[in-house]
Amino acid sequence: MTNNGGSDLTVTQASVTAAGVAVKGISLPLVIGAGKQSTFDVVFSPKTAGALSGNVSVISDLSSSPSTVSLSGTGMAATALLTSSAPNLNFGNVALGKSSALSVILTNAGNSNVTVSKVSVSNARYSVSGVSAGLILSPGQSATLDATFSPVASGSLPGTVTVTSNATNSPVTISLSGYGAATSQTVSHSVSLTWSPSPSAVAGYDVYRSEVSGGPYTKLDSSIVAADSYTDSTVQAGLTYYYVVTSVNSAGVQSADSAQTSATIPTP
């Protein structure tokens, strides 16, 4: 309100003809000096849905009193609507003993507060954080719900997160899926060799190996083998190895190579 006159203006009354509208922030009678201004608030708090029409009347000691301001607005029904950025979370393959985390965003898409009353998970291998009972989201506000998958058994492990609230679409459910993958285990391979002992007196034997049939061969033992057997534990999967053995007498003289034998190491 502005007093454009040259003397004080006295406001004695401010009234509203529209339901759900109130005048606040004014104390009557109010004196406004020449050339001065004063403000008050017109607050619309609809009780029912529908269109608003009416006016605010201000009565003063002006000859042209009252002054009126037209009002318009629409009362909307209160809605509490909770939405999720994704209907499901797929964690894919996760190694046993490991964890994987994914997130969804929950948003209040209505025009009144949403209060979360409960967050539950149907499978113990999933856990959630970031959203819990008691959380209040105002209209347009969002919160991030973090879900973690921690498998301890191999296979497909479905689950569900359920968020219960006062929203009209409660509960919001988010499907969870993941696969517990057994970790690859290193498989050890070895080749066991045996041969007929030499008919003559020997100090022991040397064992040779090649990856090519017919050699050249590389000696495997660091000192002569006293027994008539040997285990080669340095082989790799998918390869074929060729072996020969020689006898060694007490003077360190080797015999000729034995007949060649071979072994193919399987691939896991």
Structure, briefly:
The chain has 268 residues and is mainly beta. Strands 8, 10, 12, 14, 15 and 16 form a 6-stranded mixed β-sheet that branches. A 4-stranded antiparallel β-sheet has the order 3-1-5-6, with no helix packed on it. A hairpin with a 6-residue loop joins strand 15 and strand 16.
How does this model look, in words?
- By secondary structure, the protein is mainly β.
- The protein has 3 domains: 9-75; 82-181, Immunoglobulins (Immunoglobulin-like), CATH 2.60.40; 191-264, Immunoglobulins (Immunoglobulin-like).
- The protein has strands at 9-16, 21-24, 30-32, 41-44, 50-60, 67-75, 82-84, 88-95, 100-108, 114-121, 126-129, 136-137, 142-149, 155-156, 159-165, 172-181, 191-194, 204-210, 218-219, 229-232, 240-248, 261-264.
- The strands form 6 sheets. Strands 8, 10, 12, 14, 15 and 16 form a 6-stranded mixed beta sheet that branches. A 4-stranded antiparallel beta sheet has the order 3-1-5-6, with no helix packed on it. It has a 4-stranded antiparallel beta sheet with strand order 7-9-13-11, with no helix packed on it.
- The protein is rod-shaped, with a radius of gyration of 44 Å.
- The termini are far apart.
- 15% of the residues are buried.
- The model has no long low-confidence stretch (mean pLDDT 91).
How much of the sequence is in beta strands?
Answer: over 45%
* SSE class: mainly beta
The first-level CATH class name of the largest domain: Mainly Beta
Distance between the termini: 89 Å
- Low-confidence stretches are none
CATH architecture label name of the largest domain: Sandwich
